[in-house]
Amino acid sequence: MCNINITHILLLFACGVSVSADETLPVDPVAPAGGEATAVGALAVAQAVSLAMSNNPAIRAAETSVIRQQHLVYQVTRNPNPTVGYLAAEVGNEGQAGQQGVFLSQNIVRGGKLCLDGQVQQRNVSIATHELQVSRFQVEADVRLAFIEVAVAQERLKLLNRLQTSLDRAAETVQRLVNAGESSLSASLQSKLEAQRNAMRIHLTESQSAVARSKLATALGRDSLSQPVAATVLLPRESGIDVEQAWTDVLATSPELAVAASQLDRSHYKVRREQAEPIPNLQTQWSIQQDAATHYAVFGIQLGVALPVRDDNTGAINAARADTWRTHHKVDAVRRSLRQRLLTTVGQLQQADRQLKTIKSELEALARENLLTTQRAFALGEATYLDLLNAQRAYIRLSLDTLDLYQQRSIAESHLQTALVKAAESPANER
Asked: Do residues 114 and 77 lie in contact, with contact meaning Cβ atoms separated by under 8 Å?
């Protein structure tokens, strides 16, 4: 990956558009060797992510869901409550009160059903926990993409505003030449047209910036966002990427895959739970009564089990097995989807890297030399203003293309940082 200073590239044209008193060109292509990429008081992307995490209701709801599932683990593993009651028999026999007493009954769950219920519910806890991480990554992806959109609009406005100053001065210079009879009227009209076209681009970018700021403010839980954002989010962070190593990292960190894997694990326990269902529970009852005629205490014991002769739970067992296959295929589908997203993202990174390298090693110097040469030729009367304008356009386009490449690369890096979890809403200009 080439080492490109964002200030040098993005402001390559913008920082050199001022004109001295003896220049007829609004361009000085000598850019500073470096610059401050982060304005004082600018919002950093890490701060934005932290704010969004603390204010997002979707995350709070997902956290509550985890707590709910944890409580259900306790509930589903409880034994049935015993039943206590009054019991009477032979009442009125020979005018006596008969046998009266109390009984206690208890349903004893067999087959390890409660343990299996707990295992199934524990997998629900795991699913909810991984879904919480999905929500966090989605929020982070939303914030990062909105942040990048704001940063790009912010930097584009800087370029266009400095260019506007240059074009306005150029229009004034050409008009003076027209008044002195040293230039044509068409050159004056062309310079004014370029200035007005750039002003339209500024208005459009300002509107886009306002929309992007509103989206970012909403993601942060704010009504508005007035402070600038740190443009360092557009700087490349990786010197290269190994696809297979990145794939290994995604498999280890993807909450989407973890959700699917937990669902598969849960389905296996559901099969075991349904297989245990036909094992009959033991129904017990103990009683003690006082016989009014003999004054003896009478004890009673009852034991019973359901006979699984009509319903052996075959349908539910087979359905649980089918669900296991369904979740198995879902795991494979999620894995394939992640692989496709990874290859697309890495492709975007590599494409941006190649183009940025070409700009740094070839196009930047060519555009600068072309602009300098045309500037000198225009000053000597050997080039027309239209020649100068075309050279200037090429230089401007290179700066804006570079900014677009930084945006493309930053978006791809954001996808990798959030384990390729898809944002709820991607920016319209995402590549």
From this structure: yes
Q: What are 195-241's pLDDT values in tens digits?
A: 898 899 999 999 999 999 999 999 998 889 888 898 888 876 666 78
Domain assignment present for residue 294? The answer is yes
Question: How far is 390 from 336, CA to CA, in rounded Å?
Answer: 47
Residue 202 placed within a domain: yes
Whether residue 422 is contained in a domain is answered as no
- Residue 1 located in a structural domain: no
Task: Considering only CA atoms, give the Rg of the chain.
Answer: 37
281-286 CB contacts, 8 Å cutoff, 24+ apart: 281/107, 281/108, 281/109, 281/110, 281/113, 281/305, 281/306, 282/107, 282/108, 282/110, 283/105, 283/107, 283/108, 284/105, 284/106, 284/107, 284/108, 285/103, 285/104, 285/105, 285/106, 286/103, 286/104, 286/105
Query: What is the number of other CB atoms lying within 10 angstroms of the CB of residue 263?
Result: 22
Distance CA 236, CA 3 (A): 8
**Nearest alpha carbon to residue 123 among 340, 341, 324:** 324
Q: Would you say 177 and 24 are in contact if contact means Cβ atoms under 8 Å apart? A: yes
Most distant CA pair in the chain, distance: 140
How many residues are listed for the chain in this entry? 431
307: domain range? 6-417
Domain count, the chain: 1
More confident residue, 174 or 105: 105
Angle of CA points 173, 179, 183, to nearest 5°: 70
What pLDDT does 28 receive?
A: 31
What are the backbone angles phi and psi of residue 295, rounded to the nearest 5°?
Answer: 60, 20
For 68-73, which contacts have Cβ atoms below 8 Å and span 24 or more sequence positions? 68/128, 69/121, 69/124, 69/125, 69/127, 69/128, 70/125, 72/121, 72/124, 73/118, 73/121, 73/122, 73/125
* CA–CA dist 387, 371 (Å, integer): 10
Question: Domain with 43 in it: what CATH number?
Answer: 1.20.1600.10
- The type of residue at 167 is L
Q: Name the residue type at position 275.
A: Q
Q: Sheet harboring 99-108: ordered strands across?
A: 83-89, 99-108, 282-291, 297-305
